[in-house]
Amino acid sequence: MLNIVIFGPPGSGKGTQSKKVVEAYGLEHISTGEMLRSEMKNGTALGVIAKKHIDKGHLVPDHVIVGMLTRKLKTCRGTKGIILDGFPRTVNQAEALDQLLAQYGDQVDILLNLEVEDEELIKRLLKRGETSGRTDDNGKTIAERILVYKQVTTPVIDFYKGKGVYRSVKGTGSVDEIFARMQTAIDAVLHERMTKVK
Ligand code: B4P
User: Fold this and answer.
1) Who lines ligand 1 at CB under 6 A?
2) Peptide bond before 88: cis, by omega within 30 degrees of 0?
């Protein structure tokens, strides 16, 4: 399996780029944000818990997210691989992911970090808020999400740097330009794998 993590602050283009990776490499897309929004829409118990946190721009508790992801990962066995979008967002989640993948003799092969400045993030999310209907795409909540990202989520970067799978990707420019940068990094991993097999 090829296991990719797409990482970056809110509004960095994780969802947008994940769709292109799925098309190009035939991977399963796992977006914890989308899964939570579906739970909220269906009014499930998990959705009710999630809404309380999401509306404030806070993270949903680790145990809730890890439980949801564990169930989802099981359904992805036997596929070409996965792209994780919005997970892990804490070091605890990263450790849990490691253990979950290790059960299957797998690991994260690459983490792609989309780097975008705050000003651009805010601009993108406010624009999306005009049409998305997302309760977290408003000025106050966007600012809180960016703060939470900096305080709680960025330590995940060091976790993966330590494993040698971290790659930085410039996240500004056109969607296709950014995707080309991502492809270069993913193809390098695939090439390295082929070389090892030979
Ligand atoms: P997510 O759905 O993951 O939301 P996000 O981080 O804001 O990223 P998103 O995918 O929306 O933005 P994207 O960069 O694709 O999470 C929502 C909430 O759920 C979180 O705040 C949290 O509360 C909770 N949650 C989710 N996962 C969790 C976890 N693991 N642990 C705890 N809580 C969790 O795109 C943004 C916009 O930019 C789009 O409108 C797009 O059109 C635009 N865009 C993209 N690329 C562009 C480009 N090159 N140029 C211009 N615009 C671009």
Assistant:
1) 10-16, 32-33, 36, 53-54, 59-60, 65, 86-87, 89, 93, 124, 128, 136, 145, 175, 178
2) yes
